[in-house]
Prior knowledge:
- The protein is mostly helical and 396 residues long.
- The chain has two domains: 22-34 and 51-226, no CATH class; 265-396, no CATH class.
- It contains 17 helices and no strands.
- The protein has helices spanning 3-14, 24-34, 53-86, 96-99, 110-143, 150-160, 168-182, 196-207, 209-212, 229-236, 245-250, 262-274, 280-298, 311-316, 320-327, 338-358, 366-395.
- Helix 3 (53-86) runs parallel beside helix 6 (150-160).
- It starts with a helix and ends with a helix.
Amino acid sequence: xxxxxxxxxxxxxxxxxxxxxxxxxxxxxxxxxxxxxxxxxxxxxxxxxxxxxxxxxxxxxxxxxxxxxxxxxxxxxxxxxxxxxxxxxxxxxxxxxxxxxxxxxxxxxxxxxxxxxxxxxxxxxxxxxxxxxxxxxxxxxxxxxxxxxxxxxxxxxxxxxxxxxxxxxxxxxxxxxxxxxxxxxxxxxxxxxxxxxxxxxxxxxxxxxxxxxxxxxxxxxxxxxxxxxxxxxxxxxxxxxxxxxxxxxxxxxxxxxxxxxxxxxxxxxxxxxxxxxxxxxxxxxxxxxxxxxxxxxxxxxxxxxxxxxxxxxxxxxxxxxxxxxxxxxxxxxxxxxxxxxxxxxxxxxxxxxxxxxxxxxxxxxxxxxxxxxxxxxxxxxxxxxxxxxxxxxxxx
Length: 396
């Protein structure tokens, strides 16, 4: 029996009147993820190309695995280097049951570093995915809606913004908050005005700041403390960063699971632009706004070390690149008009650098900058549309 026939035989059990009718959204999500939906438009429709929600979300999800694997390698590298410095030869937490005997924790071994990093990413991602999909299915069953592929993107992006050593239960609470408060209470996919992944991360940052910031959460080794280069710059400027720019660009530094390697993120960004999934205008606008704002602060003489941080350092430290490529370009919560996307991106870049520089107590400003941009996106689009209307009326 083929998989298609097996799913078709199961359908009556989940359809209306079946014993598992309440779980139909879960069945429908699995079916449409594997096959083209059985119900399609019969007549002519206004479609310009072959892109649909499924292809868009699956493409973003696949591109996110570029920073997943690169980021996991650097998580493992940082951990193996810390273990070597501490004289440890095995992992003492529950992950040791999987890792001890499988890898040698050699920082010079690609395999050892990648597997060690994945031992943090995979449990974290599974926890996030399961916790969030339960509430997605619950809301879908109550409303009679289907579960779409958008959650694949939300779950993996949320995971990539977390420190590697965050407790699993905390990650579950964060994604539940992001799904429910950031999306479902507003009507679900397509109706949320905030990015759900960033909403969940913002909740965790303010609810559990000790586990989301500081110098003890970035390297996945108990007893090892090391601040991120962005946090170090706040205290000692460029001299305290402890990493060369090129190494920071590649990802040789501690940080969130998927935000350290700007190179991997930009490769994914190019793919998203070439496939017309993400808006190059938003990405360029973010970088342009950050460049102009950073250049302005660089021209001001100040005792605050953050005033001296140039744009190229802003780009590779923290979550600016990841936010510009994966978060700011969210098609639901970003601006919809082409001109609006420029203003929206520039606003985010401006706010990110402004928060980083003017508020040294919060060196990572990208999360709040994108959420701030989400709030203003509808207003930006409104003014752009009104300007177009006036211009056309003036032409007669």
